[in-house]
Fold Polyketide cyclase.
Amino acid sequence: MRFFKIIAVIIVLLVGAYAASMYYFVEDSKNFKIEKEIDYPLDKVFNQFNNLQNFTRWNNYFSSSKTIVIDYYTPYEGTGSAISYTDPKNDNNGEMFIRYQNPNKTLRYQLFEDENENPTMVDIKFKPLSANKTKITWFVYTPKLSVLERAQNFWTEDKFAENIDNSMLNLRNVLGNKVQKDNQLASIKYDSLMVENEEEKMILGVNVSSSNKKDALYRNIVMNYNKVYNFVTMDMGKKNDEIGYPVLITDADNFKDKEVSYFFGIPLSKKTGITDNNFSFRSVNPTQNYIIYYKGSYEGRIKAVQQLIQKAKKDEMRYGDLYQTFIEAPVQGQNVNVKLSLSVYK
């Protein structure tokens, strides 16, 4: 009995010492600042923060979990917008609000986690450094913690900083795809032959063989587009601003063949593990391409492809694969809007 009393006294002393050290040496809340820069225009960056449907797609706090369920409340954007979330797998839930915004300048978030009645307050300041570069500054104010909970403040800032690092990587991928698409649409000149340097790509898709009779090939392309798009958006959970334009890769001369083999896929920012053996990744190395934009019936593309091949032969260039990038998703019975790219080299 005396032994248990001694143990009890030791425990009380240890808890008392812990509580005293927390009370005198550890602050009940944390205030800190984190600064980052991103190579995208202010208006495009700000829209990813003040629209909570955009925000939750790339912010690692929400996007890192596949089991999280988020409800969005009107007005969806700006002051007064809000979300509630629950994540049964990680035993996590809460609510988040935008309490204030000064467009393209500042935002204030309020985050209630689990059953805590005291919110985390986050003020974010946006500053344009140039036409294509923005500085983002987070000012974080954590809720007050009881004496016994204050040890959490030792790792709060590091945890928040790690989340921002991962989130910024996601944001760069989202904006990279979005800006690339916007720039590509703005620069289109149909039926004009141009030279373009293509960057490296990682494409998830399927290898296919199809009959080239009448419209059989295009029907097959539409079917496989839907197959790949559904897998990427539903099974992998990717949003439209996280993926590139769908692309078909084939031999440049096979439009004359009775049967056509091709790879059809959608560019992603990085290679990830997949469990469905029907799909595979294909890496496309940087190339120099002769390109031409074409709009019309799919069968009518052949004339544009021949223009590219004739140009390569005239310039005494060897050529490789033909890339057909669908600016608009292929739909049965409708004209196509594509960028035809022929890779060339000496």
